[in-house]
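Fill in residues.
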């Protein structure tokens, strides 16, 4: 499982020029699953993200987690994070989980994040989405398990 986490001032997702979801302060997550990922991967990743401290405290140090700043999550499925470009110029996605495996993992992952009392919003799985964001910092972390 691979997640690109971006700390944002705001983010939104649209499909066919229709707004699907938006958040103010929080995280934009780009989420991908590998062919052999399991619910255990989701559980570990949800715990890591819920407890990650990448918001500034009163001294400007990255000591605060998402909940302490009343942040939310916009979670977007993005199988292309497992694109392999080692050979040629066209990415291979053989490491990416097929949609019948990835979709239930994505839904479970979002539900696990909600168990940490975090507001979680998603895009539309399998659709062409347009993402708008204001990266804060910028702070971008790549997480993998």
């Amino acid at each position: 499982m691979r997640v690109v986490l971006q700390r944002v001032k705001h983010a939104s997702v649209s499909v066919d020029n229709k707004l699907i979801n938006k958040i103010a302060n929080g995280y934009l997550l780009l989420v991908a699953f590998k062919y052999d990922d399991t619910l255990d991967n989701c559980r570990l990743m949800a715990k890591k993200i819920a407890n990650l401290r990448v918001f500034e405290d009163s001294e400007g140090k990255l000591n605060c987690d998402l909940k302490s700043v009343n942040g939310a999550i916009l979670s977007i499925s993005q199988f292309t994070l497992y694109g392999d470009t080692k050979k040629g110029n066209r990415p291979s996605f053989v490491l990416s989980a097929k949609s019948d495996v990835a979709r239930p993992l994505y839904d479970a992952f979002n539900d696990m994040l909600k168990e940490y009392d975090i507001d979680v919003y998603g895009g539309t799985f399998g659709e062409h989405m347009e993402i708008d964001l204001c990266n804060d910092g910028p702070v971008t972390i790549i997480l993998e398990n």
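The chain has a mean pLDDT of 97.
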